Amino acid sequence: MTPVIILTLVLMWQAVLVGYAFTLAGNAADEGVRAGTAVPRGERFGACQRAALEDLSGAWREGASVDQCGGTGTVTADVSLRVPVLFPGSIDFPVTVHGHAGTVEEVKR
Fold it and tell me: Domain of life here (predicted)?
């Protein structure tokens, strides 16, 4: 019975990591969009990318990518994270989760 309990706990932990990866990707996209709206258009991608990756720990940041930061009239960001196997920083599944955020660009007059 012990192996079944251990296997169940491992599978539950892996499910928690997948959910946490979705949460991190969404939060990183939100942070990137927030930073992207505060700078001029020419500096938007760099500011968005830095802000999106800033709060991720080193193990999560290694597999992260910011695919898009920009837009006309709206600012959007897409962040991708790889799902780790059991522990962040170890091997990764060939599965990537995506976070997307967007907001309307505010124009100062």
Answer: Bacteria
